[in-house]
Structures are given as structure tokens and as C-alpha cells.
Amino acid sequence: MLYRTAGQFKTTYKADQALFPVRQDAVLLAIILLFAWVIFPLTASEFAFQTLLIPIMIYALAALGLNILTGYAGQLSLGTAAFMGVGAYACYKMVTLMPWMNPILAILLSGIFSAGVGVAFGIPSLRIKGFYLAIATLAAQFFLVWLFEKWAWLYNYNASGAIQVPNLDIFGIYVAGPQASSVVQYFVVLGIVTLLTPLCINLTRGNLGRTWKATRDMDIAAELIGINLMKSKLTAFAVSSYVVGVAGALFVFMWRGAAEPNLFDIPLSFRILFIAIIGGLGSILGNYLGAILIVGLPVVLGIVPEALGLPVSSAMVEHLNIMIVGGLIIFFLIIEPHGLARLWALIREKLILWPFPH
After folding, report:
1. 237 contacts 122 by C-beta, under 8 angstroms
2. In a 3-state reduction of DSSP, which class is residue 158?
3. Cβ pair 215, 205 in contact under 8 A
4. Which of 16, 144, 148, 318 could form a disulfide with 261 if both were Cys (CB 3.0 to 4.6 A apart)?
């Protein structure tokens, strides 16, 4: 009943290709935005902001960047965390060298440096692909983390080798640093995610997105019909690295508050890859569904047994989390390769047809 499409007519190709071909989808998105912008800031606790809301959006944005490269353009990457580190260190240098700079502008500009590094390491994709390209991006992961450790200029010659986020304000309101409140940081993250997500949706639905999909499905055939593979692959690396770099700056400035080079090591890359796989490769919605599951699962495992009176140690929660995530990855790779996004699409199709069988 809720997804009944009776009376919704499409008389043009433009209407048929609309972002929301079913009116209920737009209503559902409006409800989600209402919760995100109004209800959560008024009702959520400090624990909810720092443990769920802020990390979910940051991880979803990082997975979105990876999904553009892997899910849409078909280029495997295992160096996502390193490109996040480029964005974080670039943002740190900008706000320390130019303390008058708007911190939100610095976060958005930090993605440009990450995009440049991503294009440089994406050049091997013009000659290699598949497993060999994944190894090349893994080499970028190790090299960049080593660079974060050895190039003291990046962390202003700090004896600890870590970067510490200073207090940054806009019109007298602290948005980053020890004095910033979680609500303000939440609004900054939400604003940037709300800005970048529609941009990525439009890119994937436009001409550039179609060239990425053609390159992913069969690059030789794409080249035969006139698609410039070099432009297609390098733009995918650039856009993906930009989004990942912005996510890295948000990761440090709006959530962690400080970072060492090993924070951007290979486990973070795999965590983001797991979000993209479980959520669904080649899907925008899947990044958010996967992030909700990956970030929220440890919290649920820690709260539910305690509420039921079952004593569970933190070590047991960590082991259960790893086991469940591993099982979910195997399940989705075998049973439903398109992830949670495809499961929601099936539910949506059933709701549109209900109660009439198809």
C-alpha cells in the first residue's frame, strides 16, 4: 500500500529517467533528511554522535569514493586508507600554514591533493588491471604510510610523529579541535556528505558514469566504440581519490581529533572495502547501508547482551564482530553479490507490486 504507484504516469523520457521515478522514494528521502538535520541533533546523546552518527557518515563517504572507482569504473584498489591520509595531512598543513583559512574550505580543498596523488598512482591502470592493479594500489598504501612517518614536515616536526587538530572556529563557533562540540562537528560532516552525495549521484548517472560502466564491463569493447580509456580510468581515480581525501580530513578533524601514520594502515583500507562489498558495489545507497551495519554492529554486540543480562567481555565482542563481518562478506559474495542495496531493491519491488503477485 505504501508503495502503490497507481496514478503516477510518465509521459516523457525525462520523467522516466528521473532521479525519483516513484514519488514515495522522494518522500522517504525527505523523512531521512528530516531525521538527520532536525531530530537527531535535538535528541541524540554525545555517545550517539561519537560512536554512531559521525563515523557512519565518514565511513559511508569513504566507501562512496571507493565505490566510484571499483563499483562503477571496475578498477580494484586496496589503498583507500592511504588516500584518506593524504587528505588528512593536506588539511592539517593548510590550517597550520594558513590559520585564517575557513576549516570547511580546507577540508574540501584537501581532496584536491588526494585526487592528484590518486591520479599519479592510477597511471598503472592504463597497462594493468585486476589483481595486478590491486597490488599496485597496495604498494601505494605502503609507500604513503611510510611517507607519513618519515617526512617530518607533514606533521610539523612533532616529536611524537602525530598530528593534533588545533581549535578551529567559524564566526566564533569552534568546529574542530578539543573545544568543538559533537553537535557542531556532526552538522559539518552532514553538510559535506549532503553536498558530495548528490554530486556523485549525478556523475554516475551522466555521460562520465556511462563511460565508467562501459570500461568496467568490457574495456576493449569500450575502446572500440570510441571511449578514451585513459580519460575514463584517470577521471575515476581522480573523483574517487577526491571523495576519499575529503573523508580522510573529516575522519581526523571531525572525529578522531589526532592521528598517527599507522591510523591509515591497511586494516582501514579493508574496513572500507568491506563496507562497499556488504553494501553493494555499484550502488550509492549501499555505502550508507554497509556503513550502518559495520559501524553499528560492535555497538549492538556490546549493548544487547548486557541488556539481556549476559556478561560479554570486550574481547569477545571484538571476536564476534570479526566473525559476523567475515560471514556476511562470504554470504554476500556468494548469495547476493550486489549487497544490501540489492536486498532493499527487491523489497521495494515487492512493495510496489503488493498485494498483486507477479
Report:
1. yes
2. coil
3. no
4. 148
Q: Which residue has the higher pLDDT, 125 or 355?
A: 125
| Helix or strand holding residue 163 (H, E) | strand 163-164
Q: How far apart (Å, rounded) are the C-alpha atoms in residues 194 and 214?
A: 28
pLDDT of residue 277 exceeding 70, the answer is yes
From residue 121, alpha-carbon distances to 20, 90, 144, 229, 247 in Å are: 36, 17, 11, 16, 19
Q: How many residues does the chain have?
A: 358
- Cα-Cα-Cα-Cα torsion 170, 172, 175, 180, nearest 10 degrees, comes to 170
* Predicted confidence (pLDDT) per residue in 165-175, tens digit: 999 989 889 99
**What count of Cα atoms within 13 Å lies in the side-chain half-sphere of residue 219?**
17
Chain centre to alpha carbon of residue 232: 21
Which 3 state secondary structure label does DSSP give 175?
Answer: strand
Q: How far is CA 40 from CA 53, 60, 327, in A?
A: 9, 18, 31
Which triple of cell numbers denotes residue 169? 572556529
What pLDDT is attached to residue 358?
Answer: 55
Spatial contact of 311 and 249, defined as CB atoms under 8 Å apart: no
Q: Closest by alpha carbon to 64, among 203, 177, 197?
A: 197
- Say how far apart CA 4 and CA 8 lie, in whole Å: 9
Q: What digits encode the pLDDT tens for the residues 338-350?
A: 889 998 888 888 8
pLDDT at 136: 86
pLDDT, residue 11, reads 80
CB 145 within 8 A of CB 261: yes
Tell me how many degrees the CA angle 296-54-347 measures, rounded to the nearest 5.
50
Longest CA span, the chain = 68
DSSP state letter for 262: G
Q: What angle, 0 to 180 degrees and rounded to 10, lies between the N-to-C axes of helices 229-251 and 103-122?
A: 140
- pTM of the model as a whole: 0.93
Which residues, 6+ apart, have CB-to-CB distance to 283 below 8 Å? 67, 71, 338, 339, 341, 342
CA distances from 43 to 30, 36, 39, 49, 192 (A): 18, 11, 6, 10, 21
Q: Is the pLDDT of residue 130 over 70?
A: yes
Count Cβ atoms below 10 Å from residue 237 Cβ, excluding itself. Answer: 25
